Amino acid sequence: MACSTDPDGGDEAGAGDEALGELRFAVLAATQSGNALLVADMVAERLIRRGAKAAYVLDEGRYPGGDLADCDVLVACVASHGEGDVPDGFREVYQALIAGRPDLSHLRYGLVGLGDRTYATFCGGAWKVDALLQMLGARRIGEPCTIDASLQPFPDEEALAWLEAWLPELWRAPPQEMRASAGLTGRR
Ligand SMILES: Cc1cc2nc3c(=O)[nH]c(=O)nc-3n(C[C@H](O)[C@H](O)[C@H](O)COP(=O)(O)O)c2cc1C
Q: What is the torsional sign of CA 124, 130, 131, 136?
């Protein structure tokens, strides 16, 4: 799903929102049973209502390499399955990113982990994606949001509350400086 700027979406404008108009977001949905996709859709919708230039949801089957090269900020919404693993449908993408090692040093990101504290490996899949993004040069902004399905039946509500607190941290963080040297300047 791709979202573009909605001119009627400014009803929740807040401090710093003008900066959003300069930013292209990708919102990754690494999901198995749909919760992370729901969260990603709601996050993208909120970003557009805030005035983001674009917010693209990357879900199963859509390899994010090119999209990540073309966006400024990633919000990674990642569920955990198995024993702290990424969801089955995301595993191929995850392995391809490890193998391909794209340079993501232009990218800032926020992390939303969906898990369940009754598992020993709470949000293990999200932490794996966190480590991968950092290995590829991306810079995480702020603390992750970790949502415990054993307590929280409405993950989108928790994620949107986190997003509201996270955006001001994003304003304060300077953009990554590696885009030009990574040869990605002309791809926007
Ligand atoms: C078979 C199975 C294994 C799971 N393993 C973990 C786990 O290792 N760690 C964790 O934090 N949550 C685990 N969970 C909980 C899910 O991450 C949680 O329900 C999440 O909301 C699912 O998101 P999704 O609908 O996007 O796949 C597991 C759930 C299932 C059904």
A: positive
Identify the domain containing residue 126 by its residue range.
Answer: 21-171
Local confidence pLDDT in tens for the 188 residues of the chain: 444 343 333 445 565 677 889 999 999 999 999 999 999 999 999 999 999 999 999 987 665 667 788 899 999 999 999 999 999 999 999 999 999 999 999 999 999 999 999 999 999 999 999 999 999 999 999 999 999 999 999 999 999 999 999 999 998 887 765 443 333 222 22
DSSP state of 176: P
9 is a domain residue: no
38 CB within 6 A, ligand 1? no
pTM score = 0.89
Cα 181 to Cα 23, 104, 106, 153, 185, distances in angstroms: 20, 11, 9, 44, 8
Residue 178 lies in a domain: no
Ligand 1 contact via 149 beta carbon (within 6 Å): yes
Q: Would you say residue 50 lies in a domain?
A: yes
User: Taking the CA atoms of the chain, what radius of gyration do you get in angstroms?
Assistant: 15
Distance (angstroms) between ligand 1 centre and the Cα of 81 equals: 4
- CB of residue 17 inside a 6 A radius of ligand 1: no
Residue nearest to atom 27 of ligand 1 (CA): 32
Report the CATH number at residue 136. 3.40.50.360
CB-ligand 1 contact for 154 (6 Å cutoff): no
